[in-house]
Amino acid sequence: MRKTLLILILLLTFSCTQRKYKTIDFGQFEINVPENWNEYERKGIDSYVGGIITDTNDSLKFDFGRYSADLSTQDLPMVYDSLGLAELTKKELELLPGTKHLIVDDLFNTNVDYKEYLKYQFEYESIDCFKAKIITPTNKGYGGTGIYIDSLNGKDLSIGFYGWYLNDEIQSEFIKALKTLKFKKYCE
After folding, report:
1. Would you state the pLDDT for residue 67?
2. 108-113: Cβ within 8 A, 24+ apart
3. Who has the most CB within 10 Å: 87, 94, 145, 176?
4. In the predicted structure, residue 11 carries a pLDDT above the cut 60
């Protein structure tokens, strides 16, 4: 009897703590997200843009069009001289002490293996019918997390979908959501 009661309590506890999900339809694609995340609209100039606001008020933004950014092509090493430090945002300066970075006197006269200090790491994964690049910061919470898919229409249409400075839980949920992307018009 005690064993049955313990199992019942564990099952009830587990079922109450499971997150619920919903599908957001952005027209060009759908994504499954936690129930308390909400879509928002943005005005684009040359592409379709929009996003999602998480339950912690993080903005996850997408750019669907010909000029969508691939964040991994901007993967500069986190090696700074005085000029590079001056170009960092206030948020980046706050987070910098918790990262693997290097400060040098002269970027051009130093013997550094810059690959050790790259800002991003990425992996390829199949999402819907596309090869997608999932991008995460090397230093958790420092930089962008997201996805880039090139050639949705076989030539020049792509999507970049990113969130910045995400905590571990939101980053994990966002990557999980990105893996549910469905491109209705492009994968038939």
Report:
1. 85
2. 110/79, 112/77, 112/79
3. 145
4. no
Task: Output b/e per residue, 30-44; b: 16+ Cβ within 10 A.
Answer: ebebbeebeeeeeee
Residue 104, token pair as written in the block: 């040098």
The Cα 72–Cα 129 span in angstroms is: 21
- Residue position matching structure tokens 């994964």: 125
Whether the predicted pLDDT of 39 surpasses 70: yes
User: How far is 159 from 69, CA to CA, in rounded Å?
Assistant: 8
**Looking at the predicted structure, is the pLDDT value of residue 188 above 80?**
no
CA-to-CA separations, 136 to 72, 161, 175, 182, in angstroms, rounded:
9, 12, 9, 21
Task: Decide: helix, strand or coil at residue 96.
Answer: helix
Q: How confident is the model at residue 79, as a pLDDT?
A: 95
Question: Considering only 40-44, 56-60, 140-144, which range has the smallest mean pLDDT?
Answer: 40-44
- Please count the helices (runs of H) and the strands (runs of E) in the chain: 4, 11
Amino acid at 108: F
Mean pLDDT of 40-69: 92
Rounded to two decimals, the pTM is: 0.84
CA dihedral 52→146→175→47, nearest 10 degrees, is: 50
3-state secondary structure of 68: coil
The residues, any chain, with a CB within 8 Å of residue 81's CB and separated by 6 or more, are 103, 104, 105, 106, 107
